[in-house]
Amino acid sequence: MQPALAATKDPPLPLAERLAAAATAFRSLPQLQLTGRLASVTGLAVEVEGVTGFLSVGDRLVATARDGREVMLEVIGFRSGRAQAMALGDLAGLGPGMPARIGGEARFAVSHAWLGRVIDPLGNPLDGRGPLPPGPAPRLVRAAPPPATARARLGPRLPLGVRALDLFTGCRQGQRLGLFAGSGVGKSTLMAMLARQAACDVAVIALVGERGREVREFIEDDLGEAGLARSVVVVATSDAAPLLRREAAHAALAVAEHFRDEGLNVLLMMDSVTRFCLALREIGLSAGEPPATRGYPPSVFAELPRLLERAGPGLEGRGGAITALFTVLVEGEDHDEPVADAARGILDGHVVLERRIAEAGRFPAVNVLRSLSRAADGLLAPEQKALLARARRLLALHSEMADMVRLGAYRPGSDPEVDEAVRLAPRIEALLAQGKDETDTPEAAFAALAAILDSHGT
C-alpha cells in the first residue's frame, strides 16, 4: 500500500506583497456613493438634506436637474440641519426633491502640457485644442499657504522688462505687488507686457470676472503667441457663477504652485482681486452673512489674505517661487476703499496707474511717486538709491510747480532746483514711456536715468 502523500503548501507571501495585494483589492471595490435631496432653491443658494453629517464646507455635490443635466454644487455653510450650497453653473431645472450625490473635494492634476492652454476654473479646456493631459498627481485647488517660518526668503531681482517698474518699484523673486488702477488705464496691456518680457520660467494669468468680449482680444492681441507659449490662462468671465469666479483665483494659484514646487520661477498675474472679492460678497450674502464694510461681509476679508498669502517663495531648500502681480480696481479713483486698503496692507508693494497720466498719452501710466516696493532696498546699490531719490525729488517738485510754470507765475532763475526740475522732469517722463512691444533691462534703464540726471544741457 502506497503511503499517503503529504499535502504541500505554498510558502506565505511577504508582508509587503500581501499589503500591496490588499490595497489593489480595495481600490477595485466600487466606491460608495451617498446621495441626498434638494430641500429648497432660493436665489443663488440651494439647501441639501439627508447627507449633512458626511459633508464639510468646501465639499462638492453633483445635483441632477429635471432634464438629466448634472449641476455641480459646493457647500458654503450649514443651517438648521441642512447643508447650504451654491451652484458652479446654471440653476435652471433644479427643484426640491431632486437628487444630489457627494462628489468630494476640488482637485485637478496639472502638468507641463498645460503651458500654452486656456482653461476654466474646473480644469476644462476652453481653447478648442482637445483635452488637457493630466499630471501624475491631483492637487487641491484650495490649499493652505506654506508655513511662514518654513518659507524661503525673497530671491534676487526679477527683471520685469518695463522701465517704470524696474526703476521705481524693483521686484524680487517671490514678491507680491498690487497694481491699483481704475478701468481703462492700460492695466491689461501692462499685464501682457509682463507676461511676454519678464524674466520668468512660467506665467500664470487669471482673468477673474473679465468681459467675455475682451478675453480673445487679450489672448490673441495683447498676450500673443510668444506670451501664451509659456503661460497658462485661467478664465471665468463676468457672466459665470460667483463660485466659478472665486474658483478661478484659487485654480490659478494651484497651477502656479505646481510649477513652483518643481523649482521653477513663476510669474502670477490676476485681474482682478476686486472681482474676486465681489464674488465672495455674493457668496457670503447668499449664505446669510450680515453685510459690513460697504456691503462686504466679514468672510471676504478673512478669505482675501488666505488667497494672497499662497503666492510667494516656496519652502526653504525646495527652490521655486511665485512672484505675483494682483490688480485692484479702485472704484471712483478711491484708493482707500475697503478692498484696496486690505490688499495694500497684505502685499509687498503697490503700483498705481493714474488716469491723468494715461490721458496725457504716457503709457504705462505708472505714477512713480505714489508707487512703492517694500523689497526694493534689498536690490539697490547705494548709487542707485541716490539716483532714484534725486529723480523722485525732481518729479515731485515739477508736479508741485507745474501749474505756476504753466501760468507764467514762476520766473526762470528764481530757484535753481525748480529750474532743474523743469528741465529734467520731462526727460524722465519720456524715459518712463514705453511701447507694448518694447523691452528693456534694469541695467539699461538705470544707465539711461543716470545719463538724464548727469546732463547739463538746456
UniProtKB/TrEMBL annotation:
Give the reaction(s) catalysed: ATP + H2O + cellular proteinSide 1 = ADP + phosphate + cellular proteinSide 2
What PROSITE patterns does the database record attribute to this sequence?
ATPASE_ALPHA_BETA
In Gene Ontology terms, what is one molecular function of this protein?
ATP hydrolysis activity
A Gene Ontology biological process noted in the UniProt record is: protein secretion by the type III secretion system
From the Swiss-Prot or TrEMBL record, state where the protein is found: Cytoplasm
Q: Mind telling me which SMART domains this protein's record contains?
A: AAA
Q: What is its main location?
A: cytoplasm
Name recorded for this polypeptide: Flagellar protein export ATPase FliI
